[in-house]
Specification:
- InterPro entries: HMA_dom, HMA_dom_sf.
- The chain is α+β, with helices and mostly antiparallel strands and 69 residues long.
- Helix content is 35%, strand content 29%.
- It contains 2 helices and 4 strands.
Length: 69
Amino acid sequence: MKTLQFKTNINCGGCIKAVTPTLNQQAGPGNWQVDTANPDKLLTVNSDTLTATQVVQAVEEAGFKIQAA
């Protein structure tokens, strides 16, 4: 399983709630997390199949900014 990390603007519980359906659909529940305590708001995704491009696209479609960490 590969680990992908991204800087985001997902910075609170409400933001996490908004992006959860999209990330659960793409990566699966329990295969991603956002460290809102980190200044870069790091999103970590564990997946065998997702590419960085797919994760970026999913998060942007949910209305958030994202870039490779």
